[in-house]
Design a protein that fits this description.
The complex is a heterodimer of chains A (323) and B (99). With 323 residues, chain A is mainly α. Chain A has helices at residues 3-15, 28-47, 49-56, 62-87, 93-102, 119-136, 145-173, 177-196, 208-213, 221-239, 264-274, 278-291, 293-322, and strands at 249-251, 256-258. Chain A starts with a helix and ends with a helix. The radius of gyration of chain B is 21 Å and the shape is elongated. Classes of the chains: A mainly alpha (323), B alpha+beta (99).
């Protein structure tokens, strides 16, 4: 087959909504786009453990602590599923880590905001995981097989994350005046960054067109953002909290909520590395990687020792049998 | 793929899980581990946190050999014209039940 017919075969598969698998021919740009998107997604899961890890030792009850631990452990797992999916495209795990640590690869900017009160654990679960789910559900049908299968697993596990966050917000909003204020304050701080999680507006999103064509993405950034606003505003009513947007209004004609202008200058600034916690997050990751070197070495040494011990036991046995 | 392989990385393993007694092991995903014993332990933590399995197989990824998707057409072609291998190929009178 010539390159053109490879391309035609690939296009036909995409048009028929068939999945692309690791050994299938794929255009170089498709491979690159996927590596970028999947590794960025994996990094987000891993860095996403940090803002919540901050609260494990200070969770208000044993139940909350167990839940938070389980959630953070899930996120480590999600990172691993996604790194594995990216590896099928021919990039190594170490290479991806190196890209994260050098700042070459990005992760979701939302994790560059601090978690300063317990209510932030509620807001992160409710809003950040809520936005993530909105993004991730369509990815369960994305065109690249290993990515889609990883996302099915992630989505199954993710829904408890949002529910536990909403439950924290619900308890606080029904609590004392101080607790209610704490919930509102967390909502105020996390609302806009959560809307930014869907990425730049469609008109300025350089990757959207190809990604939609290749069925990597099934909805545009703006479509998903609108869906999130519509759903979340109703949930805020149940909590009795006020959406921190004076321009928020139901638009009868569109059948959607209109919402205020997002501060994209802030978004770009955080992506560039100037958010409140960018430096701290990366330093923590690098430190964990460097200080974990001895664990990786020790596990490898242990495996080799175990192998040698088995080999010598086997040869002793063979000698005994011969004698 | 070799250009990106790093020798200090733990080997890659494919994980297969039997979700309950009586069912096949099914591919769940992959992970890195220094040897098969640690691969099984890691697989338990990564792939069975919600009782998804009662048995785990791990196979080092380099030991898996796959058919070539480029050859699929000719590979599976012999089965195309053998519809008589399916029970629906045979016309039986309505009176015959349970066959």
């Amino acid at each position: 087959m010539t390159v053109i017919s490879f391309q035609e075969h690939f296009d036909e598969k995409i048009d028929k909504d068939q999945t692309i698998e690791p050994k299938d021919w794929m255009p170089e740009d498709y491979r690159k786009t996927l590596i970028r998107q999947i590794s960025q997604h994996a990094h987000s899961e891993i860095v996403g453990m940090l803002p919540e890890g901050n609260w494990i030792s200070r969770a208000p009850t044993l139940r909350r602590k167990a839940v938070l631990l389980a959630k953070v452990q899930d996120e480590a797992g999600h990172g691993l599923y996604l790194y594995s999916a990216a590896e099928t495209l021919g990039i190594s795990r170490d290479e991806m880590y190196a890209q994260l640590h050098s700042g070459k690869a990005k992760y979701s900017s939302i994790f560059n905001y601090p978690t300063i009160t317990w209510a932030d654990m509620g807001a992160v679960g409710w809003l950040v995981d809520g936005a993530a789910i909105m993004n991730q559900v369509p990815l369960c049908r994305t065109s690249y097989g290993p990515y889609a299968r990883a996302m099915v697993r992630v989505c199954k596990e993710e829904s408890f994350h949002q529910r536990q966050g909403f439950e924290i917000m619900l308890n606080l909003s029904k609590g004392t005046e101080v607790q209610r204020k704490m919930a509102q304050d967390a909502f105020n701080r996390w609302w806009w960054p959560s809307l930014m999680m869907f990425g730049p507006p469609d008109a300025e999103s350089p990757n959207t067109e190809n990604s939609v064509r290749w069925r990597i993405k099934r909805f545009t950034n703006d479509e998903l953002r609108q869906k999130f606003v519509d759903v979340t505003v109703e949930q805020a009513k149940i909590l009795g909290l006020t959406v921190p947007d004076k321009d928020l209004k139901w638009n009868e004609e569109r059948g959607h909520y209109d919402f205020g202008v997002i501060d994209w200058a802030e978004f770009k600034n955080v992506v560039k590395g100037n958010g409140p916690c960018n430096r701290q997050r990366l330093e923590t990751r690098k430190k964990a990687w460097e200080e974990g070197q001895w664990v990786r070495d020790a596990a490898m040494a242990h495996a080799e020792k175990r192998k040698a011990r088995k080999a010598s036991a086997a040869s002793t046995l063979a000698e005994a049998n011969a004698a | 793929m070799d250009s990106t392989t790093n020798n200090s990385e733990w080997p890659l393993w494919e994980v297969f899980i039997r979700s309950k007694a009586g069912l096949d092991h099914k591919h769940a995903g992959s992970l890195h581990a220094p040897d098969y014993e640690m691969a099984i332990e890691n697989a338990r933590d990564v792939y069975t946190r919600r009782m998804e399995g009662v048995s785990i197989w791990v196979v080092e990824s380099k030991n898996i050999h796959a058919s070539d998707p480029g050859q699929s057409a000719s590979m599976y072609e012999p089965a195309n014209d053998k519809i008589y291998r399916h029970p629906t190929f045979y016309n039986l009178p309505d009176e015959v039940k349970y066959m």
